[in-house]
Amino acid sequence: MQSQIELLKALGARARVRYNQPPRLVLAFYYGWYGTPELSDRWLHWEGVDAARQQIATSTHYPQLGAYDSNDPKIIDQHCRWAREAGLDGFIYSWWSIGGYEEKPLPRLLDAAQRHNLKVCVYYEQVPQPGDPRSVLPDLRHILRQFAAHPAYLKVQGRPVVFVYVRAMEQLSLLQWAWVLETIRAEFPPGVCAIGDSLSRSAARVFDGIHTYNPVGVLERKPLNAIQPTLEAHYQEAIQTAGTLGRIACATIIPAYDDTKIRTPGLRTDRFGGAAYRRQWDAALRLNPDWVLITSFNEWHEGSEIEPSVEHGDRELRTTAAYAPRFRQLPERPRMATPLTALTGEAVADLRRAWTGKTIGLLPDAQSEALFWLLDAGLPVEPLEYADVVAPGRLTPARYAALVYAGGESYRARVNAPDDVDRALQGYLEAGGVLLVLPGAPLPFYYADGKAVNHAGKFWLPIAESAERPEAGKTGFETPPVLGLQFRWNRAALPRMGESPTPFPTGGDLRWRPALRTRARPDADYTPLATLYDAQGRNWGEGAVWIRHPNGAAVGYVWFRLLETPAAPLLLAHLLERAVAQ
Fold it and tell me: What are the chain's domains?
């Protein structure tokens, strides 16, 4: 098991990764999991095939080539020919395991791609043993040894490209992924170019680039005229973030999506006669990312394919062929040079002096933007293992002037006995300690040891969950139910903060989990730092708050997306100033 110190060292190394002028690429996600009785002895990923009616029970549409086998050389060659005619640069190939059925067509695809002047890279779908970063190493070693040496394998700055799907990303912490990538870099210099399935700033700190597999979540139920502005808003901040950090920025577009044949109730977006795809290409041209990704070339189960179908012909291939050259001709996108965690040198120096002789305990599995800010600021941080947390007499205010929780929604509640981690944290607060909750996900302490528990209240955090019918000042929400949301700053408490409010994010994860005064302990001194208001002036709770208790303990909380705003450095500095003066 890697120590927290090893993980933080790997994180520091990842911070030095830079891609200043990545090549412009148009790539499509590709699936090699289809099988027929003729070649694979059974149907695979095709169920209920009715060739006469041109219907497949598990496919939204019917392929123009019929229900094919992914190992068929003629099929592979046709796919590559179509891809080249459509202006694609290559495929992102769905890869599941060493020696798995899905891996079998990959060597043939690489050979065909070379003949057609295309590139191929792997989409890493799952971690063999979730929670264990060591289990990823054999997979990546295999991919690099067996496939990455092929001339058609996609490389950037000498690094073989590996996309990482959100499932795999969430099966390890960001710190663990940093360790994996640095371990592989040491074994196979200069390492891999890993593109993570997340639009978060924290992911952009760890991975070589960021993407999302599918924007259906933001496009569902959208009318045609809303598709382009919705997609632009969804990706704009992430593309800017990636550029600032020297990472590769991707924008994913879809012709449509319909998985209602395989899932209940499922999701569906309309093709609008091909117009939906064109509007998304228009958005991509305005966004000007490094890479445009297309979901998908041939994911037939979810109706997202651009491969020719009986229903739609080659319309989406022709659209791709029209737009891809325009994308490649765009001027290079300007990249910001100022670090996002910037704070005046004098202010940082003052903060360091204030913390001289004191220690900040960093709770395990840190991954939020706050972690990077703490490291950049050079504050006295001591990473803790869970064994340290429960060690008798270890977790005291005398030893740690503040504890920082910068993890996600999951934590470990038990080490040696039931709830011993909870008792240690509660004991620290009862002794007058300071807990700063600066998470990398919406609701900290929601999962414990793999179970949904919502333990935030145990640690004096008055955070509200979402509700089916959100109410201002009473609940959070999954997506904004009203317009004009913005954070107003308490400038009496934060005199260095600007007067302008901070808009609520328009893209990415929008799950709002506010702190509420009504949920705090009655005897607590509750100081709002950033409050969310809508256009009608209704208060939706706090995105940042400082809560002091009569015993001298204090809890600071910042909603995870506020940590990604330009105001974050001032806000974090303020919380650390309060903590050290407590």
Answer: 4-328 (3.20.20.80), 345-581 (3.40.50)
